[in-house]
Design goal:
5 strands, HIT family, subunit A, binds adenosine monophosphate, 3 helices
Length: about 140
């Protein structure tokens, strides 16, 4: 069963499309957190960022890079929060990679990306060194 976003790409479900090219696609979020809230997706379905092939990842970033100023300018925003919910535990509901571009306005009452974490961990120097080494060895 194709994801709801694939159905949008295929024109089976209506959406306010703001950009499309060979590999990427963008449209307004149906439940906007702010005017201009836009979703940028790869045309093909990949569940998580880590599933996206290198070439498509490059295209996806190019489209995000192009749309951030377009979205901000269109709604006269002061800034934007640009983020992926990458996996169910992070709040991803639609299993088709999508980048949220959420316009932000001075005094809009929203929080920074730091607000997404629950309880923050109290990590010692050794634990931090260990985690950094684990990541570095996989990067
Ligand atoms: P996430 O929680 O990161 O998976 O976000 C999914 C987003 O998709 C939510 O912000 C929804 O409002 C949005 N959404 C769901 N269905 C549609 C649709 N048919 N058209 C546009 N946006 C949608």
């Amino acid at each position: 069963m194709p994801t709801i976003f694939s159905q949008i790409v295929d024109g089976e479900i209506p959406a306010r499309v703001v950009y499309e090219d060979e590999t990427t696609f963008a449209f307004l979020d149906a439940n906007p957190l702010a005017p201009g809230h836009t979703l940028v997706i790869p045309r093909e379905e990949y569940e998580r960022l880590n599933d996206v092939p290198d070439e498509v990842a490059t295209d996806l970033y190019e489209t995000i890079h192009r749309l951030v100023p377009a979205v901000e300018d269109a709604v006269d925003a002061d800034a934007s929060t640009v983020a992926f919910n990458n996996g169910e535990a992070a709040g991803q509901e639609v299993p088709h990679v999508h980048c949220h571009i959420v316009p932000r306005f001075d005094g809009d009452g929203g929080g920074p990306i730091h607000a997404v974490a629950g309880e923050t961990p109290d990590l010692g120097e050794d634990e931090l060194d260990g985690i950094a080494a684990e990541i570095e060895s996989r990067a």
